[in-house]
Predict the structure of Protein kinase domain-containing protein.
Amino acid sequence: MEGKSPDLESIGSGTTTKRSSVSSRSRTRRDFLARFTDCDHFTEKLQDWFALTLENSGGNGPVFEVPFELVELQKFDYALEGISFQQLTRMPNAVYASTSTAVEAKAYLAIEDFLHATVKSLWEAFWSQDEPVPFSVGCLYNQNLKFYQAERALAIGKLEGLSGTGILLKNPRHLHGKWDHILELALLRPDIGSFAQDSDRPPSLPVLGEALFYALRILIARSVSRLDFSPSSNCVFILLVDSQYGGVVKVEGDVNKLDFDLNNVYECAADWIKKHSKIAVSPVDRIWNKLGNANWGDIGALQVVFATYHSIMQYFGPPRHSIEDLAADHSSRLHSRRQERQLGDTSLNDNGTFRFQQSTMSPEIVEVQEESTKIEPEPSMKLEVGSVLWLEDSNFQKGYQINEILTNGTLPYHIASPVDDAGKSVFLYVGSPPSQLEPAWEDMNLWYQVQRQTKILSIMKQRGLSSKYLPQLHGSGRILHPGQCQKPSSGGRCDHPWCGTPILVTTPVGETVADLVNEGRFGPEEAIRCCHDCLSALSSSSSVGIRHGDIRPENVVYVTSGVRHPYFVLIGWGHAVLEDRDRPAMNLHFSSTYALQEGKLCAASDAESLIYMLYFCSGDFPELDSVEGALQWRETSWSKRLIQQKLGDVSTILKAFSDYVDSLCGTPYPLDYDIWLRRLKRNLSEDHGKEIETSG
């Protein structure tokens, strides 16, 4: 019998060597984890880094980024409507407690119950109502780093050694838990509420250092685990809570970049935090009221539950029912509730608010005088044609007279003229007054329209973008209200409800594509020019890493005044994407397929949205009432080439461009802007030479 061939022997030898290398690496990491047990020693190594981080922030704004944007929490809040969260064990109120030991014991029981209620409700709502909940909740005993049920830990006298409460995967073979089975960890610290007064103030180093310590232990344990993790498992959420307040710390990074030097464990761990980790810290907000009940709908509990949702996804992947699907039913649920409560006519006023009519349900209700239930609102900002607003910037004060009041479909904006240049027109956007301490979720749209768009346009200006197809920042700052301002400092505000209201002023001014379509003035020539000009704007912005994320007819204007040759400008940059954590606007008709599926943009997403805008402006506007329906429409339309055929009726170049975009949808391949700008330019009926820019 012949022996093995040399090739097979070399393959076998190579496989053995590879396995030996992997085994050695895993053993080194396990040894590193076994020695990485002293939280205080680790925290000491971070003192210089923490001090430098505070110094670099300069006291202006938050020290760390936030793990979640408010718009994400808004959508998640809508998705949670109708989902029941039941915490049976109340959180004790430390103010009325008899002894601190009793308070701490009850607090651990309450946190355990809170986390159990959270994962149970999330699992049943998003993943499966039929399958049993695959999680357990236990308290971490610091001396042996094992988990125990809260009642069991308290019964055997381990209260003083408890350091946190974790959500773990159920495993009957490991009753005290394994570190790679930890989804999320909550640390009970009595002074967390002190950080709620200042949203920009981070937790102290001892608190933050402990969160980083446990997060790194979890990440190292996952790196040697046999479990099948998703790509997002390189981040960990640590909850910081006391008897009333709570916040979220997100730690993200590649532990393969950690130097596993067994002789220098804490220096290596601290060095990884400094150089290779990304840390996000949420504002601390109230979770439990004074009666010990969780305020599930408030932002404090909402961001904690959202962190748990992401933690579950790391193990089980995307849910069967997405956030977008559940949130899409928000309007119908709201309408149903209003009908059930017999609040009368719930049609919308012109300003987008509900109009109520008195309903006679019972004699007791009829006897209540309407005047007795009125709540006097704060003085509202009434802007009328002819009104003059004064803007306060760091270097000047400038007035603008309102000439016209418009709307982009949901929010008002204005055409105005500078007081010192009445012949010039500008777009003027007014934000929400900061006197609204608890603004409605709808005011987030104003924040994107004013504050966030101001930031994006400022970044464009700083990075030297110059294109006539992009809006230009004419001015931004705070409103100067009537009367004497009593604000204590340049950065503060007085009691006047208008004080500190943000304003954004941009140029140029034009009619929106939506207006052109409604008036029948958006023909083939305008469609080709619109495609060219918007593509040129996207080419310029993408060259500095900015993507639009909200292309729709209301965000493209046609400039005709004061120019020889009309052109289109892409406005509405409030939802622009600068980095991976940014989220684009979600629109069932105009968002790209990848944006609807992943909540992110791929390289061709803006071009895909541009195609949808041109398609819908050609007359076909289907009714889409859910993300699932919108994705189904896209799949059918692209597969049957309905979009290409429709745009082919307008122009062959638009048909060819839509074919090209279809080939890139959902891929990482970049768009070749230059070649398509040249082709679109050749198809314009008039060649204006240098009037048409191809890039910025």
Notes: The domain at 511-688 is CATH 1.10.510.10 (Transferase(Phosphotransferase); domain 1). The chain has three domains: 25-316, 383-483+493-509, 511-688.
